[in-house]
Design goal:
Blueprint (H helix, E strand, L loop, with lengths): L1 E5 L3 H12 L3 E5 L3 H8 L10 H10 L3 E4 L2 H5 L4 E4 L14 H13 L4 E5 L7 H15 L6 E5 L9 H6 L4 E4 L3 H11 L9 E4 L1 H32 L3 H9 L20 H14 L5 H13 L2 H10 L9 E5 L14 H11 L3 E5 L4 H7 L6 E3 L12 E4 L11 H7 L4 E4 L6 H6 L3 E3 L11
Parallel strand pairs: 1-2, 1-4, 2-3, 4-5, 5-6, 7-8, 9-10, 9-12, 10-11, 12-13, 13-14
Helix pairs in contact: 1-3, 5-6, 9-11, 9-12, 11-12, 13-14
């Protein structure tokens, strides 16, 4: 099939490369000429394991094309996927201006029948809005072209997006037209060889499914983080509690790891957007509001532990904290809504110096934090510890899971670890002279 992808961000580029990998011809359209130039050179502007090789191979094999011209992208395409950004507005609502701009330009440019697909995460009712915009633009041109607007939300995990696309759990498609269903079946047939994975439903239901899925996962994260806080107060161990509840198949082990709160481009934005949508129609989203509130509190959990620890020592002003991990999760360079940024902000406001290391996100971190004179980005995992009063583990990169503790103790001014991901064994660290603080477990060590 011939496909046009409008927007070469995270969702757009992954979708384009994976569609091309299955033999389709895919035109990627982006308004930024620098991005298009970079892609044509075989380089990608985002970090995602396996994606760069996929993009390069399919571009060289002439299944993947890059252009700044929507007209060129639309020329032969049957499917037109809208994958532009939908940022969160100051009031929590979803900003649809980029989606609306693309819809307007499609209506001004298309010359034959198209299936227009919302793949960006958008509020319920957006497909109807896109349909109205396209129809209005066609009418201005005196054209009566047949088209459909469908919803095909993405369910990609950053860090494993290529695998998620190639081997999806499910493919949700929202449309009211049987003909559109048939064409989606053809498009996604290579990804559903072992079993039927397409789930067809109404357009609004598909739009709602995306928000409901992300809010459910965010709820599980906030729930276990709330349990972790209570465990610390009552003397329970959240790791043991997690094993106890996760063995119930109705609950499961996924997304019940306590930590520093969720971040990234999806959960924070989508939770706020669904809260806003619910309020607009007169609903009271009390549970989802609580999920957001707990997460905001959890992002400050580790910095509060650090502030409390150093308070008897004259506070954190003038002291140095080493941080391992800046991305919101491992296997990505995405720092949007990263808990590390919240921790750094609170501690530097109190006068603490920060030395931070991340194996991938350091480039973006340098750009984001360049105006904070108390922050230094260091490019070596152990050098970042030298002269620091403590180390905080914020992102669960694999290389942090089994570090050289003798090396850590030698580099730090004092053997103090704040573990925001519960990567280490408290009894081991306590018996080896560390003061160790984690999430939902009692701290250990002589200086605790």
């Amino acid at each position: 099939m011939n496909i046009c992808i409008v927007g070469t961000g995270y969702v757009g580029l992954v979708s384009a490369a994976c569609f091309a990998e299955m033999g389709n011809h895919v035109w990627c359209v982006d308004v930024n000429p620098d991005v298009i130039k970079t892609l044509k050179e075989g380089k990608i502007h985002i970090f995602e394991p396996g994606l760069e090789d996929l993009v390069k191979r399919n571009y060289e094999d002439q299944r993947l094309f890059f252009t700044t011209s929507l007209k060129e992208g639309l020329d032969k395409a049957r499917f037109v996927f809208i994958t532009v950004g939908t940022p969160c507005s100051s009031d929590g609502s979803c900003d649809l201006r980029f989606v609306e701009n693309v819809a307007r330009e499609i209506g001004q440019t298309m010359t034959d029948s198209k299936i227009i697909v919302d793949k960006s995460t958008v509020p319920v009712g957006t497909a109807d809005k896109v349909r109205s915009i396209v129809k209005a633009e066609l009418e201005k041109r005196g054209l009566n072209l047949e088209f459909d607007v469908a919803s095909n939300p993405e369910f990609l995990k950053e860090g494993d997006a290529v695998s998620d696309f190639m081997k999806p759990d499910r493919v949700v498609v929202g449309t009211e037209k049987k003909g559109t269903c048939k064409e989606f079946e053809t498009l996604y047939a290579p990804y559903a060889r072992s079993r039927e994975k397409l789930i067809f439903m109404g357009t609004r239901s598909a739009e709602m499914t995306k928000y409901a899925a992300n809010c459910m996962l965010a709820t599980k994260i906030s729930f276990i983080n709330e349990m972790a806080g209570i465990c610390e107060l009552v003397g329970a161990n959240v790791r043991e509690v997690r094993l106890g509840i996760g063995s119930d198949h109705r609950i499961g082990y996924y997304f019940i790891y306590p930590g520093v709160g969720y971040g990234g481009s999806c959960f924070p934005k989508d939770v706020k957007a669904l809260i806003n949508t619910a309020k607009e129609v007169g609903a009271r989203p009390e549970l989802i509001e609580a999920v957001d509130s707990v997460n905001n509190r959890q992002k400050k959990m580790l910095s509060r532990k650090i502030l409390d620890y150093f308070e008897p020592q004259g506070g954190v002003r003038g002291k140095t904290l080493a941080i391992w991990g800046l991305a919101f999760k491992a296997n990505t360079d995405d720092m949007r809504e990263s808990s590390a940024l919240s921790i750094i902000s609170e501690l530097t406001e109190a006068g603490m110096k920060i030395k931070a290391f991340d194996p991938v996100a350091h480039i973006k971190a340098e750009e984001i934090l360049r105006d904070n004179d108390l922050v230094e980005i260091v490019h070596n995992q152990y050098e970042v510890l030298e002269g620091a009063n403590a180390v905080a583990v914020v992102t669960d990169w694999n290389q942090f899971r089994n570090p050289d503790f003798d090396k850590i103790k030698e580099a730090l001014l004092a053997p103090v670890i704040f573990d925001g991901r519960n990567l280490y064994d408290p009894s081991y660290l306590g018996s080896n002279g560390f003061a160790y603080f984690s999430v939902g477990r009692r701290p250990v060590g002589d200086s605790v």
